[in-house]
Amino acid sequence: MNNILNVSPSPHLSSPETTRRLMYGVVIALVPALAASIYYFGMGAIIVTLTSVLSCVAVEYLVQKFILKTKPSVKDGSAVVTGLLLAFNVPSNLPIWIIIIGAIISIGVAKMTFGGLGSNPFNPALVGRVFLLISFPVQMTSWPVPSGFRTGYLDAVTGATPLGILTEGVKAGESVASLMEKVPTHMQLFYGYMGGSMGEIAAAALILGGIYMLWKKIISWHIPVSILMSVALFTGILWLADPTIYADPGFHLLTGGIMLGAIFMATDYVTSPMTHKGMIIYGVGIGVITVLIRTWGAYPEGVSFAILIMNAFVPLLNMYIKPKRFGKEVKHG
Amino acid sequence: MFKTFPKGGIHPPENKLTADKPTVILPVPPQVTVPVSQHIGAPATPVVEKGAAVLAGQVIAEAKGFVSTNIHSPVSGKVSKIDTVVDTTGYKQTAVIIDVEGDEWVTTVDRSSVLVKEITLTREEIIGRCRQCGLVGMGGATFPTHIKLTVPAGKSCDMVIINGVECEPYLTSDHRLMLEKGAEVLTGVTIIMKALGVERAVVGIEANKPDAISHLTELAKDFKGITVQPLKVKYPQGGEKQLIKACTGREVPSGGLPIDVGVVVQNVGTAFAVYEAVQKNKPLVERVVTVTGKSVTNPGNFLVRIGTPVTALIEAAGGMPDDTGKVVNGGPMMGKALAITEVPVTKGTSGILLFPAAASRRAEVLPCIRCGKCSSACAMGLEPWLISVLSEKGMWDQAEKEKITDCMECGACTYTCPAKRPLLDYIRLGKSTVIRMAREKITK
Predict the structure, then answer these.
(1) Residue-number span of the structural domain to which B438 is assigned
(2) Residues B392 and B347 placed together within one structural domain of the fold
(3) ipTM of this model?
(4) Domain tally, chain B
């Protein structure tokens, strides 16, 4: 009876959900895509993933310990997620030292300089990827072709991505119909049989991860669906207008980083809007910008740029798009 | 079939451990402590002196002003002293302390358990009786009932909603009352309808109480104008505005009251108290309290006299477990933690909840990851992450613009936050500051 009682304001209950559980939920959702990458690219995928994750965690720890002199918070799992996503966004034959530079930019510059978890305006993994793409264009665009599990790393056989083949071909005046014969079939694309960044290729595995996250309520449907719908709609209109120079929507949805971007990159909590309406505007923005870059831009692929551009609008979306307040519209009877 | 409110809400584990425990009458304790302020509004003024002999049901403190109500002696005996005590809110206030001698009631009170269905009192007499008998809202807000039964000039009321939701986890006192005193509750509802001059009443009950839904639905066939509305289980459905929205689709305007959409909401416990006051002339001197918790040996629902020490209730439930780290007056979502258990049960005490030490501490606070789960959980359509930061930074004007005063402090945001941020702590600070500043502006 002589217990000293704790006193705190209500509520006295807390949901079992924690930041850490959410982050490791994302990690679990990334496992199918990682397995697909290892299946298609072999040892290279393993080396790239391990290097990226370890260096992201190390950079966060070192920055907090020695520069910010705060309590390291790597156990929240957010650096692991960034590391995995950075690895997923680079080719599987990227040299280790370039990956480490990517990790330093992702965590050190894009995340920690803004105050760490929760404060960064741009998706850290994408900042890292875009930095590497601009700084090391040759290494970042030499795409290994899937060849079953193999033990080689830097010596992978490389080739163009389906989107690269399309962009170059259309520029050279070839018709889309003949180009389509040079790229894998839609079914092969769905299972990931194509050149590309390590984790972006297998749409099937990425969708599986997305369903897991929806089931676990880690993400809501708003961002992925609005991105994929707007890409499908926009490319669909172009395709119907002139199928000789524009590829069909299925091709656009299954190639490049659109699945990875829509399901895992754009849904990053910190850099996406907080209301469902805001999420839909953000998603449509990403979809439209991606198609604009793919169709008329200098790069064959534009998901990374589209997400970073829309990241910049998130504070505005949060400021102007408000949830519907209870009691704002007075209804009688 | 099952209705609910559209926006927000959460599903905390229900833990209704005492749902099938019949109400036990707790013996009258040797001494009771009766605070003079057990309601919202002005404290009542004591009208008995030290040493005076009192009977159960006798007025010992009279209402002071309109927003106030009478306090009655819950026991018979001698006034030991009139002193300052700490009550369940943690604040000090005046209380009448009575040494119990026997159990003699004032003769006007009908203590039989015979159901009296016929209502003989007029509207004015009903409202007067509620005031006389010291009735307050039993759901926890303890707003004097006679005021709620008086429709303000210029407003009209066309229906009554009876709150049988009991959406707080653990609590079962309303559930037991509906099962054990269903006919009395519905008679009370009929009396409330008469007082307000309305033809229609809806009793909202959540789907996790199927026995109460079927029992009251069956009984309601004999009562004109009363229907039972089953509701989906979702916290905070017991919030007045959410309950009205769920039952009728009407939306109380921001800053408004239920009467603005023609509705008055009363708790089932209040309906029962109205029955006892009007039909039996019995003042509010006892209530059902759920005593519960995962490590409590004998959790249960107890009918206790007002003023009984909480310690006596805990003893009745098998004593305080050794691992107890927190005692909450009320439910786990909105109840207040007690610093000491030597406090009296008051009219608003719906439950006593004991938490083990491990569950009584808050988790480490991490940075906001802007997941938006708090906005999704908010039943008022607010953005808890934003208004809590605005309060933290002292940006009161901004907080007011973001409708911080619409917050009903249900705690769904803090519950759902994965970073374990104390959102509601800051929102409470902001809300009270904004209200105070608005008052100061008016008085200037």
Answers:
(1) 373-443
(2) no
(3) 0.88
(4) 3
